[in-house]
Amino acid sequence: MPRYIVERTFCEGSEISTDGGAHQAAVDRNSDHGVTWLHSYVTLDRRKTFCVYVAESPEAVRKTARHNSLPIDRITRVEMLDPYLSR
């Protein structure tokens, strides 16, 4: 299944949640659309995230973002390179 990096910028005053309960609710909503959130990277100023998802299509990722009230700047399809798997 395709893998995507989703870039998000949060507006001034927004707080990126660290609440596990909120994250679990988002994961549950994602699964309704066949989207799996793998993990995210957050910039030190906590204004931007880079999230890794597995999904059938960018539209499925957009749909879950709308349901989770999350912004999207860019969706990029990627392939994983892992030096530990290529041995």
Description:
The chain has 87 residues and is α+β, with helices and mostly antiparallel strands. It has a single domain, classed as Alpha-Beta Plaits, CATH 3.30.70. The chain has a 4-stranded antiparallel beta sheet with strand order 2-3-1-4, covered by helices on one side. β2 and β3 form a beta hairpin. The longest helix has 12 residues. It is globular. The mean pLDDT is 87.
Low-confidence stretches: none
Mean pLDDT: 87
CATH architecture: 2-Layer Sandwich
How would you sum up the major sheet?
4 strands, antiparallel
For the largest beta sheet, what order do the strands appear in spatially? 2-3-1-4
**Element order, helices and strands?**
EHEEHE
CATH superfamily: ORF SCO4226, nickel-binding ferredoxin-like monomer
Which structural class do the helices and strands define? alpha+beta
Summarize it.
With 87 residues, the protein is α+β, with helices and mostly antiparallel strands.
Jot down its keywords:
87 residues, Alpha-Beta Plaits, four-stranded antiparallel sheet, 2 helices
Topology:
Elements: E1 3-9, H1 20-31, E2 36-42, E3 48-54, H2 58-67, E4 74-78
Antiparallel strand pairs: 1-3, 1-4, 2-3
